[in-house]
Amino acid sequence: MVSATSETTWNKGRVVGKKPPLTPDQVALIRLLLRQEKALRDLAVFNTALDTSFRGSDLVRLRVSDVATSAGVREIVEIRQKKTENRNARPVQARLSDNTRESLRAYLAATEKPLHDWLFTGQGPRWSHNHLSESQLWRLFKSWLEKARLDPSLYGLHSLRRTFPTHIYQQTGNLRAAQLLLGHASIESTKDYIGTEQAEALEIARRHHL
Fold this sequence. Notes:
Elements lengths: L23 H13 L3 H13 L3 H4 L4 H4 E2 L2 E2 L2 E4 L12 E4 L2 H14 L22 H14 L9 H16 L2 H8 L4 H8 L1 H12 L3
Antiparallel strand pairs: 1-2, 3-4
Helix pairs in contact: 2-5, 2-7, 7-8, 8-9
């Protein structure tokens, strides 16, 4: 039997529940900081993560050929998700913005990666041939949050995945678009994932407070 004094709860020191998406101001700040540092890889990772809304497991396994051809960087990226609710689901597509494509061009020009190579790799001879792991991706994200003076304990990799679909939904009310961006088979999964009902309840509370 474990004594009460030695037992440690699984969520001690953690924020439990859905991790919030980044706000537009937070996105702009992190981009600015990475540009100032000339962190070409990190800026490309950050921008690609936001535009695609891919899970971390899919993002780290992108190959150069997924985002580029010999003629240049693609506008549309298409992948088959590693984890999906429906094994027969169609591939998920994402559009890369002009800013993201420019950051990828700069990163690929500096690294001279062949098309068959992993897109995002570690830095230094020891890691340069392996794709980033999800734990390495989290450490990168945590470092960006700290640079922006945001508390990393409040966020997770799902914060990156939620950011763009949540922004789209907040701006347009188009839940179907958010569903397609996330590659969810069910719109109910999307509603739960981005917390639309909770967000709407909080907005109603804001407008109709006592």
